[in-house]
Amino acid sequence: MATAIERDQKDVLARFKQEFFQPEDQIYMDGNSLGLMSKRAEAKLVELAASWKVHGIDGWTEGAHPWFTLAEEMSTRLAPLVGALSTEVMVTGSITSNIHQMLSTIYQPTSERFVIVVDELNFPSDIYAVESHLRLRGLDPATAMRKVKSRDGHTLEFDDIVSEMTDDVALLLLPSVLYRSGQLLPIRDITEAAHGKGILAGFDLAHSIGALPHDLHEDGVDFAVWCHYKYMNSGPGGTGGLYIHERHHHLLPGNAGWFGSDKTKQFDMDHQFSKAEGAGAYQIGTPNIFSMAPLLGSIELFEEAGIDAIREKSLQLTAFLRKLIKEQLPELLDVTPEADKDRGGHIALVHPEAARICKALKQAGVVPDFRTPNIIRLAPIAFYTSFNDVEEMVGRLKEIMQGELYKNFTNNRNVVA
After folding, report:
1. What is the mean pLDDT of residues 154-177?
2. For 125-147, what is the mean pLDDT?
């Protein structure tokens, strides 16, 4: 078995570590919540700020990255990461606002088909959005929203998802990767099963975009939403993204706004909405230029590294991490699926003292992530985590567990877990 040092010597992505800002001696394992800032992201933020300084209002049409078409420029470059046509992707909004846009556009319930299928392990914001759309249509979420149950409290079974696809279901919205356990769902299989029953299939890619390749267009996915501040390293609250399959591009946006207009007519100021072609139609308001800027730098890194190489290293890092945990810390229960095809970019460990263990790790120079009630999430990121980092992190965690150093902290989450 190769050592951490030997693995690092063969790492084709090792050079990217120097692209990111990180305190000395800190081991960052929380990139699945917020990725680190890269030098290129910082440079693009400065560059876009300077375009305001230099051009004033003419920055909308002048400079290296004119603001008026910045979202379209970025979307074209981002589309390969999600396996979509350039016209099917748009950098805009946030996960939640994009869910609202997609549901208001594509969810068209009838008296026979009105149920939305979700799952009981999904991130709360997705559930809140679905409930609000049902209420707006006079439907009761208690009967019109159906949750796929988990057998073990951590993962979902494909057969259980399919069993909820009854004749009254109009649409399903599921995560690509479950945020607690890191389980990667079979997107193509779920989509094919849904379409076979006349159901639309949508996915939240928050924990998969930037960590693994996607093939949304060929998989036939109807719509998807995501953020860019996790594995994509675009900064806190960075502008999100959406995908809508070209078969739906005839639909008017449920939430129309002037940035969804045909670009050639947008400044005509006509009260008659002229819909843009493709996913651009589902933008709403004026883009947040400075929130988008860091993503320009991040996209450069992904274009250079290649998403397939990123996925390969990610799988190697998480496999190495879970091997060390199993050998040295058996008291931590690994609940992430074993097979490569079934897991995303992080490992989830269960322990009754999880909150205080995470606090102890932070004191020891490791940044983990806690999820209530008892989950420690660890995400070694391909761009800036080495195999030696993983080995060192496990060593620090072992000291904490053996010395029961976590008992110096309370076992309750911080305000931001």
Report:
1. 98
2. 98
Instruction: Band the pLDDT of 417: cuts 50, 70, 90.
Output: low
CATH of 45-303, one of 3.40.640.10, 3.30.70.2390, 3.80.30.20, 3.10.310.10: 3.40.640.10
CA distance 320 to 21: 24
Judge whether 183 and 156 are in contact, CB under 8 Å.
Answer: yes
- Cβ contact 241:78 at 8 Å: yes
Residue pair 102/225 in contact (Cβ under 8 Å)? The answer is yes
Put simply, whether the predicted model's pTM sits higher than 0.90 gets the answer yes
Local confidence band at 2 (pLDDT 50, 70, 90 cut-offs):
confident
CA gap 218, 293 in Å, rounded: 29
Q: What is the mean pLDDT of the chain?
A: 97
Sheet holding 89-91, edge to edge: 89-91, 241-244, 223-226, 200-204, 169-175, 115-119, 145-148
Distance between CA atoms of residues 90 and 103, nearest Å: 16
From residue 278, alpha-carbon distances to 171, 244, 285, 354 in Å are 21, 8, 17, 45
Crossing angle between the packed helical segments 307-328 and 387-402, to the nearest 10 degrees: 30
* 84's tokens: 């979509």
Residue positions forming the annotated binding site:
95-96, 123-126, 204, 207, 229, 258, 286
Binding residues for pyridoxal 5'-phosphate: 95-96, 123-126, 204, 207, 229, 258, 286
What value does the mean pLDDT take over residues 102-120? 98
In whole angstroms, what is the distance from residue 383 CA to residue 38 CA? 10
CA distances from 10 to 2, 213, 301, 304, 381 (A): 10, 22, 19, 18, 16
For 4-30+306-408, CATH gives 3.90.1150.10
pLDDT at 304 over 80: yes
Give tens-digit pLDDT for 385-415.
999 999 999 999 999 999 999 999 998 878 6
Using the predicted structure, report yes or no on whether residue 126 has a pLDDT greater than 90.
Answer: yes
